[in-house]
Amino acid sequence: MPTEDPTDEEWESFLQNPEEALLKCLPSQIQDTKVIAIMDVLSNHSPDEEYIGEKIEPSWAEDPVTKAAFEVFSGKLQELEGIIDARNADSNLRNRNGAGIVPYELLKPFSGPGVTGKGVPYSISI
Fold first, then answer.
1. N or C end of the chain: smaller count of CB under 10 Å?
2. Which distant-in-sequence residues (6+ apart) come within 8 Å of 119 by Cβ?
3. What is the pLDDT of residue 65?
4. What angle do CA 107, 110, 111 make, to 5 degrees?
5. pLDDT averaged over the chain?
6. Greater model confidence, 16 or 40
7. CA atoms within 13 A on the CB side of 32
8. What single DSSP character describes residue 27?
9. What is the pTM of this model?
10. Alpha carbons 71 and 55: distance in angstroms, whole number
11. Which residues form the Lipoxygenase domain (predicted)?
12. Does 100 score more than 90 pLDDT?
């Protein structure tokens, strides 16, 4: 868009073709492609990424109290995933079904590799 103090030429050009002025403000296709590629790389889950509640640490498995607590925690996460899947499948929930509505998967506890939007990893991607 025109600067705060546009020259007469800039202002006249803006008035004649405001769409062109707007397009000059947007990034080029090459800039956009670079940003998208970088965001894709930074957002991918690693194939060996570990998710919370998925595997018990070997040192935790030695203590029966800690192991039992982990198993309860892991069971609750699996229960939550089941609740999310059940709600996604419930046709009475109108915000979860219909044309163009994708199922909710953002905080499903477990995920596979790639950009899935699922999983709660021990560490985070950008």
1. C
2. 45, 49, 51, 108, 109, 110, 111
3. 94
4. 95
5. 82
6. 16
7. 5
8. P
9. 0.57
10. 10
11. 1-126
12. no
